[in-house]
Write a structure and sequence with these properties.
Blueprint (H helix, E strand, L loop, with lengths): L1 H24 L13 H4 L40 H10 L8 H14 L1 H4 L8 H4 L13 H4 L3 H10 L13 H18 L8
Length: 200
């Protein structure tokens, strides 16, 4: 009997202790986070991004990237938005994409998404943004003699950095897809001249 009484007393004591711990931890005080599991991991000793940092002369924690570094999956484009740079791009850049059916289809899709609104479906400069009065300046015709004489690198430069009143699309269209848009523009120019070509 005595052992049963002692064991019952132990169970009640353990139960009361657990109940007290749960009751204490279930308060409505939001100023206390309670106990921290691994406090050395919870409270970081590192400097937060926008906090002051005595380790640097300017006192800033967030640093400027090292000169010459390139973000992951970004291809450097070392040209500027001026006519001389565009002509230089035309001389130096060569389209790495082949005019396969798949590449032309991707180029057409990208063109329809980003270019046709201004330049029109066939590159005649009669896109719905202009004809509908939403864009006041007539977009350039992509199938005329002037556009025919442009080199692939010049067209790529214009798509990447913009040209005239046209905005830059380098941040919206991946590098390979911009080259495929160039392929599609060449196809539009070929079709405009009435020359039919078949790509396999």
């Amino acid at each position: 009997m005595k052992n049963r009484y002692i064991s019952g007393k132990i169970y009640r004591t353990v139960f009361l202790l657990l109940f007290a711990v749960i009751f204490i931890n279930c308060d409505r005080n939001r100023n206390s986070p309670g106990w921290d599991y691994f406090p050395d991991m919870f409270y970081s000793t590192a400097y937060e991004t926008f906090t002051k940092n005595p380790n640097f002369k300017d006192g800033m924690t967030m640093r400027v990237p090292v000169v010459g570094t390139v973000p992951r999956d970004i291809t450097p484009f070392n040209y500027t938005i001026d006519p001389e740079s565009r002509i230089l791009a035309g001389k130096e850049l060569i389209n790495p994409e082949s005019p396969t059916a798949e590449a032309l289809l991707k180029g057409k899709t990208m063109y329809s998404t980003f270019c046709a609104g201004c330049h029109g479906d066939i590159g005649a400069g009669d896109g719905p943004l202009f004809t509908g009065g939403l864009y006041p300046l007539k977009p350039r015709i992509l199938t005329g003699i002037a556009a025919d004489n442009l080199k692939d690198g010049e067209i790529f430069h214009s798509i990447t950095l913009g040209f005239g009143s046209m905005g830059a699309h380098g941040s919206q269209i991946r590098t390979a897809d911009r080259w495929k848009v160039v392929l599609h523009i060449r196809r539009l120019q070929t079709d405009a001249r009435g020359i039919l070509t078949v790509e396999k």
